[in-house]
Amino acid sequence: MAEKIGFLGLGIMGRGMARNLIKAGFDVTVWNRTPARTDEFVAAGARAGESPAAVARACDIVFVCVSDTPDVEAVLFGEQGAAAGLSAGKLVVDHSTISPQATRAFAEKLSALGVRFLDAPVSGGSEGAAKGTLSIMIGGAAEDIERARPYLQAMGKTITHVGEQGAGQMVKLVNQILVVGNMLAAAEALLFAQAGGLDLSKALSAVAGGAAGSWMLSNRGPQVIARDWRPGFTIDLQQKDLRLALRAGDEMGVPLVATSLIYNLYRTLQQQGLGSEGNHALVKALEHLAGFEIKGA
After folding, report:
1. Fold of the domain spanning 170-290
2. Which of 18, 115, 198, 257 is 20 to 30 Å apart from 80, CA to CA?
3. What's the CATH code, domain 5-165?
4. Cβ atoms of residues 159 and 165 within 8 Å
């Protein structure tokens, strides 16, 4: 029998995820810091909760998708946070991308209440959230994943148990290192193609299906060519994730040379007020260095 589901956070990723839970016919209660954002979900069949605590009190499993570590802490443990409404046997699934160390601390605090916890960050951009095709990497107990699986399958296509609590966040940082590295390569390649007088769309089609292909090249390359900077994931959010990766790398003694470079390139774009643009706008930092822009399609 399906359990009652709560969803906290209806931002760029959470909105598509919550909508897919509603479409799948589950009993969903939503909450967002800006209450007006819940209106469209109520119209689609969900209920609106007055606070995270109220949602947690009414639901068996609570999904969280907010921006950063302090936001997760506030939603879980702040005034009227979910912890005030949680009781033994309930399950929290955090889809945010946050500090692995903080994740383990949050899990311990919830465990003291008898509450189960999974860290389950996602990848696939706003498109994947809307289509229900996200990759979900999960840290926690196998039995908790099986309990959540029917709901996870409404939101994601690839669901992978990667280890104990905190491992999901570590794998997400692996993901983000690869994402930005692939985007830097795509940006350099498209600038090179532009300088060489190539048809950029044809060049992209020629290489995307081979060894050089990547999700970022196929999905963000056409946006770069069209000079469409609408975000599947913003520069500001990307920077938050890179800060987490660089901090973890520093703690482990791992050199993240390219990641550090890309972090600083993104910083130049933030200084220009471009933090709300898509992370594929990384190409603009290289255009500035090159002295020319990729021509729009």
Report:
1. N-(1-d-carboxylethyl)-l-norvaline Dehydrogenase; domain 2 (1.10.1040)
2. 18
3. 3.40.50.720
4. no
* Residue 284 annotated as catalytic: no
**Could you tell me which residues are beta bridge partners of residue 116?**
91
Question: Alpha-carbon distance 6 to 49, whole Å?
Answer: 9
Catalytically annotated residue among 4, 109, 131, 172: 172
**Domain definitions of the chain by residue range:** 5-165, 170-290
- Per-residue pLDDT 10s for the chain (297 aa) are 679 999 999 999 999 999 999 999 999 999 999 999 999 999 999 999 999 999 999 999 999 999 999 999 999 999 999 999 999 999 999 999 999 999 999 999 999 999 999 999 999 999 999 999 999 999 999 999 999 999 999 999 999 999 999 999 999 999 999 999 999 999 999 999 999 999 999 999 999 999 999 999 999 999 999 999 999 999 999 999 999 999 999 999 999 999 999 999 999 999 999 999 999 999 999 999 999 999 976
What pTM, to 2 d.p., does this model score?
0.94
